[in-house]
Structure formats: C-alpha cells, structure tokens
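Thread: Newbie trying to understand structure tokens

Hi all, I'm a second-year student working on a class project, and my supervisor (Dr. K.) asked me to get a predicted structure for one chain before our next meeting. I've only ever worked with sequences, so writing a 3D structure as a token string is new to me. If someone could post the tokens and maybe explain what I'm looking at, I'd be very grateful. Here's the chain:
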Amino acid sequence: MSRLPRAATTLIAAAALSAAPVTSASAATDAPDAGRRPPRIVTAWACAWNGTDPEELGALFTADGVYTDLGVGVAFHGRREISGWKARADRVIDDIHVTVRAANRDGGRITVETVYAGHLKGARTAFAVPMTTLLDLDDHGLIASDQDHYSLAEILTRSGLPADWTPPAH
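---
Reply by user tm_fold:
Sure, no problem. This is what the structure looks like when written as tokens:
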C-alpha cells in the first residue's frame, strides 16, 4: 500500500468533508485556496462587504478596476468609486453582509456563490437572497472586475417594499 504525501491527504480529506466541491483547475497547486477555504481574495472580499470601512473593499481592486452591480444596473470604476458604492450601500442597508457558500476558481476567474442579506432602511423585514459574483483577477491577485448577479425584485419583495421603491437620497 503506497502512502500519499501529507498535503494530498489533507486536500482529499478537506474535499470530502467540504460542502463546496473543489473544482478549481489549480486546486492541487494552489494549496492555500484549496479544500474548504475559499480563495484568499474571496475571504477578503466578503470581510470587506461585512465590515464598516468602505476603503477595504476598494483596496481589493486594481486602480482601474470595475465593479458592476447588475441587480440595480450600475457600474463603478476605480477604487474611489468602488469604495463610495460600499459607503452608499452601508447608508441604505443596515447589517449588510454576504455569506460565502461556494467559490470555484478557474485561472484568473472566480465564481462566488453567496447569500446577500441585510435590512433596507424603512423596510418592514430584512432580506436574504442568493447572489453569484464573478471576480476576474489581474496577475497580482487584485480584482480587475466584479459582477454581482442577484434579483432586486426579490430583495424588495422579501423586504416588504413596493417594486418601484427607491432608496432615500443622501
């Protein structure tokens, strides 16, 4: 009976126990991002969204990075605008947070499955909806492009708000 190297045994055990499959093309060579843990940039991205400092989110992007929120149909360019979007979201949504359910990496693209949740100011109830994010990374591991896919209509319905609701102006 041959023995597997310790790293391979750990990777196999983590994959077997993980709720999220290891489908990364580089899973075997990208040990810090393999197994149960999502890639480091995904963890940092989720922490930035769950945190209170908007600059933390912007710092994860390249200088000319693009953040596209397809739920509301807006795009932001560069760290400053991206940080501003996070600050605005924090003003409109109490307890905004994302919970990473799965992250799959294929080269420089990471697909992140999350639950996006919070409580829109003035809404009767909080919301929690599925969201998929596509992160494209540059050669240095920074986010060059972020595309968030979720249903604004579902957020408004779960929040008890009308379909034509707009956030208060700030």
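A couple of things are worth pointing out once you decode it. The beta strands are 61-69, 74-77, 93-106, 109-120, 127-137, 143-149. The longest strand covers residues 93-106. Feel free to ask follow-ups in this thread.
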